[in-house]
């Protein structure tokens, strides 16, 4: 039974009332990602009384998360984000039915998971997941609330919802093709002001409430951008482009056969993604060289033999490479993909080229956990 006292202040709102609160209570929302964006989304939707919320994330809480992922504390370091979030949110509002899915969203599980929900909220931090969610939500006709951050700027939009004019737009209408790997750094490389995901995530939660209750004017077929340094804000109409000629899936079968890592350039033919455990074994093989494509001043340094060639200088310095087994590394795995592609194009198939997946950040995290 609805506890009207808990939601009293929003029920009293003109144009909201008990009818809107009942709509929230009967809604089912899926939040993809429990990081910087996901934390405020989860907190505000839980507090608002959305009846059923599920959280999808496979990551653990780390110290570097805490300046922006305010759902967690220092005591949560090493815990699964889903489990730590579940404890906090249950304490915040036990009336909400919360569930967790402690795995990464993939083409294998996306249809099964997403089919059950009314609204999907994209709080992911990578392009393969964004394109995957856009495609599956388009196929399943599920509303998708998108959010993204970069340093001091953020974006919010709603896709796969028909406007009053009958138009429907998708993430691919906004970004038809994925950017080249490394072209758009994530916060691991570029940094982010901690309050920014709080602002954007709160706006995503706002759009979810508007969409579920019918109040206000939601960002359907619109992109909102905000720069928190100067508060320049703009709202753009998203063009409704013809996607029929694009190499994108239109059925569940086609979707489940997509390789989004390959689609977004995270994987290349004959370039191997190696995990931290594979990396520690591979570096010991004969004729193996490790190339760090970060800038020389970047920290932390590798505790093993390597050569430093910044990505911007890689094409001009391939003469430094004589070994046949090449491993490219960087901070988060983005620049190393680009570097591996450059070397593949220059050196050809005679060399075994791989890159460290997740970069030195992932390597150090794995080493710390094992230690």
Automatic annotation (TrEMBL):
Stated name of the protein: HesA/MoeB/ThiF family protein
Domain Rhodanese: 284-369
Name of one Pfam family that matches: Rhodanese
Domain of life where this protein originates: Bacteria
PANTHER family: ADENYLYLTRANSFERASE AND SULFURTRANSFERASE MOCS3, UBIQUITIN-ACTIVATING ENZYME E1
SUPFAM superfamilies xref list: Activating enzymes of the ubiquitin-like proteins (SSF69572)
UniProt xrefs under Gene3D superfamilies: NAD(P)-binding Rossmann-like Domain (3.40.50.720), Rhodanese-like domain (3.40.250.10)
Lineage: Bacteria, Pseudomonadati, Bacteroidota, Flavobacteriia, Flavobacteriales
InterPro entries: Rhodanese-like_dom, Rhodanese-like_dom_sf, ThiF/MoeB/HesA, ThiF_NAD_FAD-bd, Ubiquitin-activating_enz
């Amino acid at each position: 039974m609805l506890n009207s006292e808990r939601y009293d202040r929003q029920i009293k709102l003109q144009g909201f009332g008990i009818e809107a609160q009942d709509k929230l209570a009967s809604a089912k929302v899926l939040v993809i990602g429990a990081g910087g964006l996901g934390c405020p989304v989860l907190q505000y939707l839980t507090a608002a009384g959305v009846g059923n919320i599920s959280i999808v994330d496979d990551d653990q809480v780390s110290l570097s998360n805490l300046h922006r992922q305010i759902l967690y504390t220092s005591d949560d370091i090493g815990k699964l984000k889903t489990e730590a979030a579940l404890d906090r949110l249950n304490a915040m509002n036990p009336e909400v039915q919360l569930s967790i899915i402690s795995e990464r969203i993939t083409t294998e599980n996306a249809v099964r998971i997403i089919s059950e929900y009314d609204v999907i909220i994209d709080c992911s931090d990578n392009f393969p997941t964004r394109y995957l969610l856009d495609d599956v939500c388009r196929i399943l006709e599920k509303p998708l609330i998108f959010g993204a951050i970069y340093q001091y700027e953020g974006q919010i939009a709603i896709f796969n919802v028909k406007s009053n004019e009958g138009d429907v737009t998708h993430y691919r209408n906004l970004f038809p093709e994925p950017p080249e790997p490394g072209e758009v750094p994530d916060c691991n490389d570029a940094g982010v002001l901690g309050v920014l995901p709080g602002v954007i995530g709160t706006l995503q939660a706002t759009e979810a409430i508007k969409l579920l209750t019918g109040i206000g004017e939601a960002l359907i077929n619109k992109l909102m951008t905000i720069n928190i340094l100067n508060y320049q804000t703009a709202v753009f109409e998203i063009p409704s482009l013809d996607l029929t000629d694009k190499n994108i899936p239109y059925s569940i079968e086609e979707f489940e056969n997509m390789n989004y890592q390959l689609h977004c350039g995270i994987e290349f033919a004959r370039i191997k993604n190696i995990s931290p455990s594979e990396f520690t074994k591979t570096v010991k093989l004969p004729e193996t060289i490790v190339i760090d494509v970060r800038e020389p001043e970047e920290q932390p340094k590798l505790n093993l033999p390597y050569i430093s060639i910044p990505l911007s200088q890689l094409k001009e310095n391939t003469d430094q490479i004589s070994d046949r087994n090449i491993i490219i590394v960087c901070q988060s795995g983005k620049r190393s993909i680009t570097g591996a592609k450059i070397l593949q194009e220059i050196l050809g198939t005679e060399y075994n080229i791989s890159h460290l997946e997740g970069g030195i950040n992932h390597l150090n995290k794995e080493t710390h956990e094992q230690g």
